[in-house]
Amino acid sequence: MPSILNRVNRVTQYQRHYQKNDGLRLWLKGPKSKLLLTPYFFCLGVGFSGSVYGMFRLLAGKKSFF
To answer: How far apart are alpha carbons 59 and 57 in whole angstroms?
Structure first.
């Protein structure tokens, strides 16, 4: 049975991976980052677009969203 105390130390491998100068931001370098950040940025864009749309409708004098 393998022990948690005897496992391989991968800190240097992770450090090499995250400090590599490949032009990517730090939050985009992880293995699951695109999977997690794509829906986040989509929701952020939809929310921002909806608020700008509502602001322009309010400036036009229409108080409802539709």
So the answer is: 5
Task: Output the tens digit of pLDDT for each of the chain's 66 residues.
Answer: 667 788 889 999 999 999 999 999 999 998 899 999 999 999 999 999 999 999 999 999 998 866
Global pTM value: 0.67
Between the two ends of the chain, the Cα-to-Cα distance in Å is: 63
Are the beta carbons of 65 and 55 closer than 8 angstroms?
A: no
49 closest CA partner among 41, 39, 59, 38: 41
